[in-house]
Automatic annotation (TrEMBL), chain A:
It is a multi-pass membrane protein. The keyword Membrane applies. The chain crosses the membrane at residues 24-43, 55-75, 87-115, 136-154, 184-205, 217-244, 264-283, 365-387. Residues 91-384 form the ABC transmembrane type-1 domain. Keywords: Amino-acid transport, Cell membrane, Membrane, Transmembrane, Transmembrane helix, Transport. This is Amino acid ABC transporter permease. InterPro entries: AA_ABC_transptr_permease_3TM, ArtM/GltK/GlnP/TcyL/YhdX-like, MetI-like, MetI-like_sf. PANTHER family: AMINO-ACID ABC TRANSPORTER PERMEASE PROTEIN YHDX-RELATED (PTHR30614:SF37), MEMBRANE COMPONENT OF AMINO ACID ABC TRANSPORTER (PTHR30614). Gene3D superfamilies: MetI-like (1.10.3720.10). Belongs to the binding-protein-dependent transport system permease family. HisMQ subfamily.
From TrEMBL, chain B:
This is Amino acid ABC transporter substrate-binding protein. Belongs to the bacterial solute-binding protein 3 family. Residues 37-266 form the Solute-binding protein family 3/N-terminal domain. The lineage of its organism: Bacteria, Pseudomonadati, Pseudomonadota, Gammaproteobacteria, Oceanospirillales. Keywords: Signal, Transport. It holds the Pfam family SBP_bac_3. Gene3D superfamilies: Periplasmic binding protein-like II.
Amino acid sequence: MSVRPNVRPAGHKPPFWRDRAKRALIFQLILVAVVAAFLIYIIGNTQANLSARGITTGFGFLGNTAGFGIGQTLIEYSSQSTYGRTFVIGLLNTLLVGGLGVIAASIIGFIVGIARLSPNWLIAKLANAYIETFRNIPLLLQIFFWYFAVLRTLPSARESMAFGEAIFLNVRGLYLPQPLFESGFGLIPVTFVVAIIASIALIVWNKRRHEATGKRLPVFWMSLVIIFGLPLLVLVATGVPITWEMPVLRGFNFGGGITIIPEFLALWLALSIYTASFIAEIVRSGIQAIPHGQTEAAQALSLPRKLVLRLVVIPQAMRVIIPPLTSQYLNLIKNSSLATAIGYPDLVSVFAGTTLNQTGQAIEVIAMTMAVYLIISLLVSMFMNWFNARVALVER
Amino acid sequence: MLTKKHLALLASAGSISLAGMATAQADTLEDTIERGAVQCGVSDGLPGFSAPDDDGNWQGLDVDVCRAVAAAVLGDAEAVNYISLNAVERFTALQSGEVDVLSRNTTWTTTRDTTLGLNFTGVNFYDGQGFMVSRDLGITGADELDGASICIQSGTTTELNLADYFRANDMEFNPIVFDTSEQTVGGYQAGRCDVLTSDTSQLAALRIQLDDPEASMILSDVISKEPLGPVVRQGDDLWFNIVKWSLFAMINAEEYGVTSENAEEMLNSENPDVARLLGQDGNYGEGMNLEADWAYNIISQVGNYAESFERNVGMDSPLEIERGVNALWNDGGFQYAPPIR
């Protein structure tokens, strides 16, 4: 036969199942339909089962009075507040320990990661011992260690350790003086914002000048002086309009001032130290991933050592560091739900614990809690992806 | 990271989503007979109420309710599968059918009875919330607790009573909420809080677990009503009746003087109340699809209410709780069972 199988007569369209694009579209439609049908079935079945069992459903409970106390509240709360308010309280406590944990873990992690590469034998081994110890002990045990082991060694409220007459440490927490701002203090934050804007302007101007003339100013130190010096100057000029409320022992506990509860300290320490050991390894691998030739090439261009690190090594290392770093941040935030084991009032303890049990609305409460962790995690990864795209090497 | 508790909750919540429609109207009695064991939800270890003994057998006042139901339904008090539940997961476990009876020092409240799809079958212990404090604080009454740090177990009515009490008396407090009673005691012993609050019966049980029980005392103030009782799912009235009357049989047995030791002789009793209770006069188990000897099985294998009380929480136990309001109605207490006739 002389007819070749691959040649079609002109004007003849192939059947749709032979068209790759259409076929792909159909498969995707089928998948969407299956997922949608599954969701509809699950939701319908849940509702039917719940009503068949006489279980109240819906989110109306969020408006009811909660009626229980919470140990640490960042915003106004009393037992007369609503269940919806307990959700916000728990969420803020989770964000507080998560946010401060991310900052502390990053700082410790970067220091230990760089120390691990130190030519000093002792420093490198110490960093190594830190990493191998803390990343190989389960986090829950570390939390218990910081909470129970450290808590038991602290003195009781009446025998607190005092640092001066202002700071007290005992088994109930760390008590700090609280600044009370008097009238006229409003000028300080305004100056602070002005100083930041001035610094940004300085940096932009310096960059343009550098491109035009090749000359540089030490803008980092200059902006530091502007940002902190200027508000300080205004503070002194206005006669320091701050008074300090000191913690005072009243009955069982200290009153007044700021209280940092031991549950927070234990959780924050445990999360930071545990996650930092992973971040340290990520930082080390990021730095080691840059071939030594890059450093040598930069030095051959007679760049000073500081600029070699800042302009050549670190930007490339960040490409390697940031994606796994994002995972560590997400882990830290999710791990903060272990708070419930030591009584830190985070979202899981307050909302998915007490509120769930008082209202009995398990499905609604657990769904809301899961949605919160999902949204926090997605936001963090969105930010980190944006940051990664910014620091990524622009290849030409 | 999710703790075990939340995994269990998720699993239970998921099972409500996935369970077929048929199970909603399940016949618990039939399922129990087919399985040959009662699925009973108990605490995660509360001496006197539900805790495993040295040999790993569950013992306690709440456990005896499960054993009574098993004796009535299956004729064997040992045919019970115990499922240990913490305060938060207990209702979900019952709703989703993981357990058929929840006998876990659970307080009977309006919300729990009316919105969770559950029914309380009675009260096996009348309790009230109290406070345990360290003796060297020199406190004698609850009204001296202004500003105190208080350790509580999460997910209990205790949290609500506490807030109400302090608000009503215009006092401040600082709650530290733990997940399990073990951790709560840990926090109290570490000195994290001045006061541990719970139902007074639980305080007695927790106190004997302390390193130095003598250093702590339980204040005499009781700030709330805590009627504790067994719970079943709503919608299966037959099963509801069985659990309800299993407890009533134990209370009636005490009233009529029937004990595990004399139950066999009592079969020949002339007393019509006893004859009806033990199935010698008419079959009062019929309405519950049970044999006529259902109550005889309970009393001979588990004992009457007084025996169960003294053995587990009363003077024969380390807890040494007095009968007090839990005495029979004709003895100055609240325990009163409707007659069997």
